Amino acid sequence: MLDLGRTFLQAVERSPNALALVDGDVQLTYAGWHTRIREFISILSRLELNRGDRLIAVLQNRWEMATLHWACQMAGVVMVPINWRTKPEELDYYVTDAGAKVMVYEPIASDAVSKSEAAQRTIRIGLDGVEGASYGLDDLLADVHDRVGKGPLTPLASPEDHSVMLYTSGTTGMGKGVPRRHRQERAAALAHVAQNLYERGERTLGVMPLYHTMGVRSLIAMAMVDGLFVCVRRWNAAYAAASIDRFRLTCLYLVPTLYHDLLAAPEFLETDIGSVTKLGFAGAPMNDGLLKRCSAAFRPKLFVNHYGSSEVYTVAVDQNATKKPGSAGRAGFNTRLRVVRLDAMGPDDIARAGEEGEIVVELASDEAFEGYWNRPDANAKSLRNGWYFTGDTGYLDPDGDLFVTGRVDDMIISGGENISPVDIESLLSLHPAVDEVAVVGLKDERWGQKVVAFIKRSTHIDGDALDAFCRDSDLVNFKRPREYVFVEEIPKSPVGKILRRKLSGGDYVPTEAVVSDVSKR
Fold it and tell me: Which of 22, 46, 168, 367 is placed for a possible disulfide with 188 were both Cys, Cβ 3.0 to 4.6 Å?
């Protein structure tokens, strides 16, 4: 299998004059991008970064971040992208854990970098004149500009070298490092191209963070099809809509939250979206209401629900997301999956059809990782007998389609019944007064936990009306929310995952003082 450096060179050789990268006023063809990548490689060499060394990048989705990613692939340097919202103590952990020698950052992360002792021990490359840097990137680029060669690059990495190390979101502490090899990243990107039916010359919105597997996959996939990656530094629905129109984007791959924001933007109604024929979503389930709205707005030829993780990129895909709402479909091209009982110790204790259990994936997958970085404890918990235990709950329906219902830790146990939040959220999302919803389990003296729905309203409604809506549905009674809390916003991670721990911990802004208690009805 080719390494990723040679994968990029394929696009340069096939389509040198095709538009490859856009970031505001910066527009690069594949030939032009190849030249900028060469300059970045010269900088990595000057900093004495060698094959296998780790480089931390704390950057938004800008042309420098995308170029640095490809330069590291060519040079055999391991890219370690970090959330630009990181805190000093988190940065201390990431730098130390990764053993990074060099850091590249921009002003938005300067406070965290300046207050991180570990960051101060690295060589710091700053963008946009940020203070505290060892070198300015513009100065380094000016120094190498006239000294780089003109011929084709010779990639130094092999398919077995590590390409990138992503850190998981760390919902219960600091994130775990997930090192991924070139061959694993390339296999994942090839599957992404196939599963989304991408054609040569696709054009996508590069908004999913390049510290997240969705962003990295979009970047690599576009190079595989000689496509265009339009950088979006920070999510802005109006800017996204304008980019769709201006660059005639053909495919979107977003978390559900961003689709929600895009459809709600006033500018969206004035946007020509006719070029977009393929939609994909991942990162969180898309509720039934939003599925219908996206389908009606775009009328896509393909609407893909993609379920995966940093560890095993593709677990399952459904290429017709609206046909069976909530279904994640079947195992991806490179994957075998199972649902095992919630108390299973190994991969062979398989749950019955319709029985909720834990989703597990075979590690023989071409795109699966091999274990966490410096975390034997996490490996012992998650890697068992050649299978990866995802920590996600779900079930297989009688047709063999996978439904993802949440996290093992999110399961609500009320009166001895296991209750998943997802199907309750999907039902409530269909009410026209519900803009967003999250369901959690709160402590209850009698039941152990009670089902509580947190609602962001689009128009006024109260708990009694929502309770009546649930009673008139086919939702079984023990799953019916016993309380409704109306909030300003549903807290989410940077990639759109609902942060249920914040809701259960009281970290939210209510829109009214009274909680609608329907438990006695």
Answer: 367
Task: Note the pTM of the prediction, 2 decimals.
Answer: 0.85
The larger pLDDT score, comparing residue 78 to residue 515, is at 78
Contacts of 490 (CB under 8 A, 6+ apart): 436, 437, 438, 454, 456, 498, 503
Three-class SS of residue 383? strand
Q: What gap in Å lies between CA 410 and CA 192, rounded to an integer? A: 28
- pLDDT confidence of residue 173: 62
Residue at 18 is within a domain: no
User: Going along 341-491, which residue ranges are E strands?
Assistant: 357-362, 383-384, 387-396, 402-407, 412-414, 417-419, 434-444, 448-457, 483-486
Q: Indicate the residue among 127, 142, 157 that finishes a domain.
A: 157
Pair 222, 190: CB distance under 8 Å: no
Domain that holds residue 434: 411-517
Q: Tell me how many domains the chain contains.
A: 2
CB atoms within 10 A of CB 521: 11
Phi/psi at 413 (nearest 5 deg)?
Answer: -115, 105
Coil vs helix vs strand at 346: coil
* pLDDT at residue 10 tops 80: yes
Q: Under 8 Å CB-to-CB from 424, ≥6 apart: which residues?
A: 439, 451, 453, 475, 479, 481
Please work out, in degrees rounded to the nearest 5, the angle formed at the alpha carbon of residue 280 by the alpha carbons of 279 and 285. 125
Are 303 and 295 spatial neighbours (Cβ–Cβ below 8 Å)? yes
Mind listing the pLDDT tens digit for each residue in 203-226?
999 999 999 999 999 999 999 999
Question: Can you list the pairs that 413-420 forms with residues at least 24 positions away whose Cβ atoms lie under 8 Å?
Answer: 413/441, 413/448, 413/449, 414/441, 414/444, 414/447, 414/448, 414/449, 414/450, 414/451, 414/478, 415/447, 415/448, 415/478, 416/448, 417/478, 418/342, 418/356, 419/451, 419/478, 419/479, 420/356, 420/393
E strand or H helix at 329: strand 327-331
- Compute the distance between CA of residue 344 and CA of residue 505 in angstroms, rounded to an integer: 29
Give the whole-angstrom CA distance, residue 379 versus residue 370: 9
Inter-residue contact 517 to 492 (CB < 8 Å):
no
**Domain boundary at 157, 192, 224, which?**
157
Collapsed DSSP state (helix, strand, coil) of residue 451: strand
Question: Which of 256, 413, 408, 262 has the alpha carbon at shortest distance from 325?
Answer: 256
Whole-angstrom Cα distance, residue 222 to residue 66? 12
